[in-house]
């Protein structure tokens, strides 16, 4: 439920930098790094490691994702794809069944693509962060690990969003004894907001990586611990999968939107489709709020259909440009004009904590379609289609907005609504993030409960099933953003749905 007293945004004349993250600890860590002389890329990496400690179900070194970067010195935009890849041995047995409502379904035997050791894709986080740091970082990598190591070692108060996530995945957190011991009070009780958690094994793992580099995870003792766990429980992930993993530099998807240059993630992200939809929307002239939301819903449906029939990993799908239940997104901007936006994810997490390491592994294999002969089918070494789309918008080479979101397929629809509100409807970034949202996909439309008088008739008009979401739930998407105003002032906003935080100094 939305805490309407939460103030998660700051506006100021920026002299050091700005940061926005889904947890106060992440935003504060980013600011400390920039105050110590680090740039926006350093700050983003440090904040991302902190988020892996304080929101461990969502992200961490067992996860994967994307980062987009602006280097002010040369004016370039670059992006790194460190999404998880399918293990070479990954194969799922399909079977037919009927749901309680009599629907004919095709399922994966044992739900192995959703939970447990066979749901784990090769993690990309550390390889991705190492690539970014080698090209753009200013501070030693060991210093960027330090805030996360301190929190894991000494402990932290469970956040509102963290407690919500643990309460909603109690069954998955019970999947392995190591996971249960780390994240549950008992088999049925998750920690509450404000409870104190530590992860000393994870602190030691981060120290090892800080000292030895990312290859310690992919080839060293940490890799051996992961592989031993996989062998014991018949997981797909192998030594070759870890050793061969590579983060990929990709040319960002580029475009224009309402006078701004756009740089977002290319395929296998669907970021480019969002801006194609926004461009079409901006040429319409809706006569009121209801028509605006109906046009947004139509654009969402078209985007998802386009993605379904033609999107996949560009290394496997000639025409390319399941989904993460929770993610983390953060963005940073420094006084020199460098910017970074990271969105990365454990998907919904696998329920597998590697004993002795504190690492909670992803279940990004759920992002693939288990059906054969489709653009997003499971093939060893392949990356799945993703909704994650960290985005930078600029004017005349200077950043005007950095924005990203978490929340599964609600990521692109959340950002579509935010950008339409700011650039077309003229809302402030704070107003845009605080406003209610809807989400239309395939045969359904869901909306915040205070939007129901508008959203329910739209669902009826479009022939969609309707679901009202109580309060302002995090499942509707959690947005973090930094916005530079016409007067040069900077606003950093953390979504109040998650009690997130923006900082400006």
Structure characterization notes:
The protein has a single domain, classed as Gamma-glutamyltranspeptidase, small (S) subunit (Glutamine Phosphoribosylpyrophosphate, subunit 1, domain 1, 4-Layer Sandwich), CATH 3.60.20.40. Helices cover 34% and strands 22% of the residues. The strands form six sheets. A seven-stranded antiparallel β-sheet has the order 1-22-21-17-16-11-10. Strands 9-4-3-13-12-2-23 form a seven-stranded antiparallel β-sheet, with helices on one face. The longest helix has 22 residues. The relative contact order is 0.19. About 2% of the residues have low confidence.
Task: List the main descriptive attributes of the protein structure presented here.
globular, alpha+beta, Glutamine Phosphoribosylpyrophosphate, subunit 1, domain 1, 505 residues, 7-stranded antiparallel beta sheet, 16 helices
Give me a quick take on this structure.
The chain is α+β, with helices and mostly antiparallel strands. It is built from 16 helices and 23 strands. α1 packs antiparallel against α2 and α4 (141-154) runs antiparallel to α8 (200-212).
Q: Outline the biggest β-sheet.
A: 7 strands, antiparallel
Q: CATH class, anyone?
A: Alpha Beta
N- to C-terminal separation? Answer: 30 Å
What number of structural domains do the residues give? 1
Strand order of the largest sheet: 1-22-21-17-16-11-10
Whole-number average pLDDT? 92
The CATH topology corresponds to Glutamine Phosphoribosylpyrophosphate, subunit 1, domain 1
Low-confidence stretches: 318-325
Task: Spell out the blueprint of helices and strands.
Blueprint: E1 9-12, E2 17-21, H1 24-35, H2 40-54, E3 64-71, E4 76-82, E5 94-98, E6 104-108, H3 125-136, H4 141-154, E7 156-157, H5 160-168, H6 170-173, H7 177-183, E8 196-197, H8 200-212, H9 215-218, H10 221-232, H11 239-244, E9 248-250, E10 253-257, E11 260-264, H12 271-282, H13 289-310, E12 328-334, E13 339-345, E14 353-354, E15 359-360, E16 391-395, E17 398-406, H14 410-423, H15 429-434, E18 438-441, E19 444-448, H16 452-462, E20 465-469, E21 478-484, E22 490-494, E23 501-504
Parallel strand pairs: 19-20
Antiparallel strand pairs: 1-22, 2-12, 2-23, 3-4, 3-13, 4-9, 5-6, 7-8, 10-11, 11-16, 12-13, 14-15, 16-17, 17-21, 18-19, 21-22
């Amino acid at each position: 439920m939305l805490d309407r007293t939460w103030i998660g945004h700051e506006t100021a004349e920026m002299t050091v930098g700005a940061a926005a993250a889904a947890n106060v600890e992440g935003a504060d860590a980013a600011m400390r790094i920039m105050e110590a002389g680090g740039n926006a890329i350093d700050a983003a990496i440090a904040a991302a490691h902190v988020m892996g400690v304080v929101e461990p179900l969502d992200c961490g070194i067992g996860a994967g994702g994307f980062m987009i970067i602006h280097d002010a010195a040369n004016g370039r935009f670059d992006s790194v794809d460190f999404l998880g890849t399918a293990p070479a041995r990954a194969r799922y047995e399909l079977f037919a069944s009927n749901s309680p409502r009599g629907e004919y379904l095709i399922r994966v035997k044992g739900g192995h693509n959703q939970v447990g050791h066979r749901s784990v894709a090769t993690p990309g986080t550390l390889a991705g962060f190492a690539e970014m740091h080698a090209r753009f970082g200013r501070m030693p990598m060991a210093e960027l690990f330090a805030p996360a190591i301190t929190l894991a070692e000494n402990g932290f108060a469970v956040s509102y969003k963290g407690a919500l996530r643990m309460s909603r995945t109690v069954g998955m957190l019970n999947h392995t004894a190591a996971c249960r011991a780390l994240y549950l009070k008992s088999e049925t009780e998750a920690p509450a907001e404000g409870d104190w958690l530590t992860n000393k094994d994870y602190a030691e793992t981060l120290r090892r990586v800080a000292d030895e580099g990312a290859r310690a995870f992919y080839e060293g003792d940490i890799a051996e611990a992961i592989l031993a766990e996989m062998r014991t429980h018949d997981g797909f992930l192998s030594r070759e999968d870890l050793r061969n993993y590579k983060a990929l530099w990709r040319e960002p998807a580029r475009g224009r939107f309402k006078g701004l240059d756009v740089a977002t993630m290319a395929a296998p992200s669907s970021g480019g489709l969002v801006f194609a939809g926004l461009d079409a929307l901006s040429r319409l002239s809706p006569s009121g709020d209801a028509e605006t939301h109906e046009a947004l819903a139509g654009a969402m449906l078209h985007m998802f259909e386009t993605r379904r029939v033609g999107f996949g990993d560009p290394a496997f799908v000639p025409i390319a440009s399941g989904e993460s239940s929770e993610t983390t997104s953060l963005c940073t901007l420094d006084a020199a004009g460098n910017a970074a936006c990271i969105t990365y994810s454990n998907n919904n997490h696998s329920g597998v904590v590697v004993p002795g390491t504190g690492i909670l592994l992803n279940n990004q294999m759920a992002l693939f379609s288990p059906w054969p002969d489709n653009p997003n089918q499971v093939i060893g070494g392949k990356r799945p289609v993703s909704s994650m789309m960290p985005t930078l918008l600029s004017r005349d080479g200077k950043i005007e907005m950095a924005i990203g979101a978490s929340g599964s397929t609600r990521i692109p629809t959340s950002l579509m609504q935010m950008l339409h509100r700011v650039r077309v409807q003229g809302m402030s970034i704070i107003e845009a993030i605080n406003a209610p949202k809807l989400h239309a996909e395939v045969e359904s439309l869901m909306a915040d409960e205070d939007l129901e008088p508008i959203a329910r008739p739209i669902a009826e008009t479009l022939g969609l099933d309707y679901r009202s979401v109580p309060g302002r739930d995090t499942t509707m998407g959690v947005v973090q953003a930094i916005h530079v105003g016409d007067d040069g002032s900077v606003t950093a906003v953390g979504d109040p749905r998650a009690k997130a935080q923006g900082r400006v100094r």
